[in-house]
């Protein structure tokens, strides 16, 4: 486990992990948005890689992917972008969120070497379930990277136990079925699922998918160790697209106020 | 031979296959695998399936010798396995009946499906009506335009047709949306996949329900030719369900097999859907297979005049049969398919689907290289009513 993960895991805060898409709306904006998120109190950052066929994502992130693709962003450039983020002083763990086909084409070994040397801390592959991830899991360990495990309310009990025990970095609990996107309400029994995940986990248990308001975030404080916000933040970036390209300083200010309005006061 | 050990317990055909899906639907795949394995061991389920094929779909479909077409072509004789004579007009109904019976057995009330040419959508809507299930069909906007007749049929059958406007607005994008819907509704919804693609156990299941095509062909040919096997078997491949069903009983036998992809405007152009001829290994829609993609792994838009072949991936077993060289895969252009369709119409009075026309076109080339006393069987996977609009546009375009 590297120092960045140590800080993340030892924090007593209700951990905030935002998701943004690399290259949305341009590379420099991604860098400044990442730094702004850290300043606002993010404990870790998920950096998405644009993909033509993102099966686990809803329309907001699909559109962000299209914007990233229009900037010719790809997996290799996303990893290189992490190097730039480190040079600019970003200290929190960065997790690359990529679909498996992109990894396969770059080459798993090539990706892992590059990720390790660029200051990447973890990898999340939403279409690579536990059953298919054995090789990558082993290789990630060799390269000092956490392969983030996803568990869902439909994960069988014994599998949830095993995944919780073996999780690296943090355990990602999917709050609701379906693709990424804002939800107005969450399913009953979610607290029990989160508590079951926490029972065996050595790492923080984070809840994600659908969270878009401070009230929703607070709902899971107590049953989880932190939360992930993706679509709501990406939607804000979409709204600010034009300013992020032409009047970035102002756009970043607006973005920061939005993030502050989202977070529980103690998470800032 | 090559296939006795595939798929393995992980759903692998060599390196191909597997389950590359979000964790949210893993339990549904396991539930499906168990239910499917139990069902196919169950005599009652199999008898019910066979009965439905006979009294509802109209099986067995005939094996028709295309005398005039063969004579005018001047080579081996060509037989047509008439899947076009199935209820709803294509082989798709075989698999739709099988999966719908399984859905009912599993207690599911809702089905979702994706469709390209609309034949699978019509088949899914049909079985949903017959077995009292609700049905949503995802279809790309471009395919809705090309296949207006089938869209109307689906709606008449009570299905909800959902227009997909992302990407190329064709089968690939309809499949993405169907999977996204399935991830959200996985607890009470059965995803009825129409081709031999997708995560395991779908490729195995679709083959199981489509192999009736090959078994009937073998016994019909055997009866005509006193115990002989065909000298070649030809089928078109998009995802590859009619082909895998047709090939199934012949794979372990000494019969040359040919899978025909869509070369569109030509495999030397960017306008084709020739996955095996031009693709590379990658993951699409839940399985590792051959697909059309950029060097960075972005999936590229395929093209074919035929909506059913317009797909950037292919069933993982076909990728395996290609790699092991058990099946020869060739590509046929739009023009060649159109010419073959006309020849078949004019010589045999049969209007086949544009998909099937690709197989017919290749069989004509193949027959010319063979002897007059040899026999080719072509899977005529569906009828061409749905394509009349496309054919008219083509004629009016003066091409």
Automatic annotation (TrEMBL), chain A:
SUPFAM superfamilies, per the entry: Ribulose-phoshate binding barrel
Coiled-coil regions listed: none
Listed GO MF terms: tryptophan synthase activity
Catalytic activity: (1S,2R)-1-C-(indol-3-yl)glycerol 3-phosphate + L-serine = D-glyceraldehyde 3-phosphate + L-tryptophan + H2O
PROSITE patterns: TRP_SYNTHASE_ALPHA
Keywords for this protein: Amino-acid biosynthesis, Aromatic amino acid biosynthesis, Lyase, Tryptophan biosynthesis
Keyword Cytoplasm (UniProt): no
EC nos: 4.2.1.20
Pathway note: Amino-acid biosynthesis; L-tryptophan biosynthesis; L-tryptophan from chorismate: step 5/5
InterPro entries assigned: Aldolase_TIM, RibuloseP-bd_barrel, Trp_synthase_alpha_AS, Trp_synthase_suA
A Pfam family it matches: Trp_syntA
Active site: 46 (proton acceptor), 57 (proton acceptor)
Biological role stated in the UniProt entry: The alpha subunit is responsible for the aldol cleavage of indoleglycerol phosphate to indole and glyceraldehyde 3-phosphate.
Family: Belongs to the TrpA family.
PANTHER family cross-referenced by the UniProt entry: TRYPTOPHAN SYNTHASE ALPHA CHAIN, CHLOROPLASTIC, TRYPTOPHAN SYNTHASE, ALPHA CHAIN
Subunit structure: Tetramer of two alpha and two beta chains.
Name by which UniProt lists this protein: Tryptophan synthase alpha chain
From TrEMBL, chain B:
Role noted for this protein: The beta subunit is responsible for the synthesis of L-tryptophan from indole and L-serine.
Tryptophan synthase beta chain-like PALP domain mapped to chain residues: 58-382
Known EC number: 4.2.1.20
Signal peptide start-end: none
Family: Belongs to the TrpB family.
CDD domains reported in the protein's UniProt record: Trp-synth_B
Catalytic reaction equation(s): (1S,2R)-1-C-(indol-3-yl)glycerol 3-phosphate + L-serine = D-glyceraldehyde 3-phosphate + L-tryptophan + H2O
Description of how the protein assembles with itself and partners: Tetramer of two alpha and two beta chains.
Annotated HAMAP family: Trp_synth_beta (MF_00133)
Enzyme class, UniProt record, top EC level: lyase
Recorded GO MF terms: tryptophan synthase activity
Designated name of the protein: Tryptophan synthase beta chain
Keywords for the protein's UniProt record, in alphabetical order: Amino-acid biosynthesis, Aromatic amino acid biosynthesis, Lyase, Pyridoxal phosphate, Tryptophan biosynthesis
Reported cofactor(s): pyridoxal 5'-phosphate
Modified positions (N6-(pyridoxal phosphate)lysine) in chain numbering: 92
Protein's pathway: Amino-acid biosynthesis; L-tryptophan biosynthesis; L-tryptophan from chorismate: step 5/5
UniProt cross-references to Pfam families, sorted A to Z: PALP (PF00291)
